[in-house]
Specification:
219 residues, alpha+beta, six-stranded antiparallel beta barrel, four-stranded antiparallel beta sheet, 14 strands
């Protein structure tokens, strides 16, 4: 009786070991296959061309329409700046340099501003893209034209994209506080290179600049 129980226990243990070995092998193959076919990073975010709307002259803002959420075509007048020219007061139109939707408004009517003061910021919400930071040790695997699967936080499913631009400098190169060693001790830090991924029209997608994303680049 005891011999039978021991035999069954031994068979059960062997079956469990075989299952664990198979599962480990399949897992290892999956991750190897993924690393061979794809380059993946979660250091990415939704981006786009930021449109800065500035005052063309020094004076008082009037007829301000650049409120949050308003959309304008390229060259549209969103306000005037009342300024003094010689002995007369003139209104100079404040125009949008490109089509976009106001995402931040810093101006109001009757406010006095200097020439060049940023009044609002906008993005073309129909043509957003993704900027992914790829490790310098992996950047040689990235090529313009590669297909990309994009997963945006809070969004269901994935978006299809294409690598459209590979940075010619690391992200830290333009940092306000670039990495520097102030002592004799130096710790090497892996740098990242920004890669721009173009998406098809993002109209109505719910994407917003700054949203976190994960990308999977097809090698």
């Amino acid at each position: 009786m005891n011999t039978g129980n021991s035999y069954r226990r031994l068979i059960t243990i062997q079956i469990i070991v075989i299952i664990v070995v198979i599962a480990a092998a399949l897992t290892g193959y999956y991750f190897y296959n993924q690393s061979t076919l794809y380059l993946k990073t979660d250091d990415a975010q939704v981006s786009g061309t930021q449109i800065v709307i500035s005052s063309p002259a020094t004076g008082k803002i009037t007829n301000w329409q650049g409120n949050f959420g308003n959309t304008f075509s390229s060259g549209a007048t969103i306000a005037d700046v009342e300024t003094q020219e010689g002995n007369k007061v003139v209104d100079i139109p404040i125009k949008t340099p490109a089509a976009g939707t106001i995402v931040q408004s810093d101006a109001m009517n009757n406010e006095y501003v200097a020439a060049g003061t940023p009044l609002a910021y906008a993005y073309d919400m129909n043509h957003l893209d993704i900027v992914a930071n790829i490790k310098e040790t992996e950047i040689n695997d990235v090529k313009v034209g590669q297909q990309v699967d994009v997963y945006v936080a809070g969004q269901s499913g994935s978006l299809s994209g294409t690598v459209s631009q590979i940075g010619l400098a690391t992200a830290s190169t333009f940092s306000l506080l670039p990495t520097q060693s102030t002592t004799a001790d130096y710790t090497k830090v892996t740098q990242v290179v920004p890669v721009t991924i173009s998406l098809q029209s993002t109209a109505g997608s719910g994407l917003r600049p700054g949203m976190s994303a994960t990308v999977r680049i097809h090698k």
